[in-house]
Amino acid sequence: MADFPDVGSVATKLRNTLIQYYSTEDNEWRMIKATKNTTIWRKPSEEFSGNLYKTQGIVEDVANRIVDHIRPGPYRLHWDSLMTTMDVVEEFEENCCVMRYTTAGQLWNIIAPREFVDFSYTTDHEDGLLSCGISLDYGEVRPPFVRGFNHPCGWFCIPLQDNPGHSLLTGFIQTDLRGMLPQAAVDTAMASTLTTFYSDLRKALKA
Known about the structure:
By secondary structure, the chain is α+β, with helices and mostly antiparallel strands. It is 25% helix and 40% strand. The strands form two sheets. Strands 1, 2, 3, 4, 5, 6, 7, 8, 10 and 11 form a ten-stranded mixed beta sheet that branches. A two-stranded antiparallel ribbon has the order 9-12. It is globular, with a radius of gyration of 16 Å.
């Protein structure tokens, strides 16, 4: 990918943006869904006309293993029920890569299958890890997919101080699905998708 900008500067800017989200005061978020093990909030995105979603829950495993299941690699496609394909297009040093992946249709296919091309970066954060990404304008869209765009997003995985075998997993997602979609439908789909993400991940880690 000869025209790719400086990897280090992209990774640093992405990391700093996610830390800014992580530091946002609680009163700026509006809770939209809570289950026994997962809570989801939203606030208006500063990147596009949609929402930035925050999701959080405790996962019963160590941070390294959890993040290995989330970031691009051999595990993700096997457990994430929304993801239908994933290919690493290019690998860089410092835990960076570009991946192309596709997702299944949602809400009885009101939201058609999507394709994304993302820059992904994984790094240390506090006593745990941060795995983050942002979409790139890259290549032609393959039919029958609609090309979506992920504004800065990522997952913080921090061991619990009183129980390091468990981790607090906090995600920030702001996906522009593109297409003529009502915001209410997007909110419903995101709440469902993020709840299922935690459920699928917990099952995979126990398998």
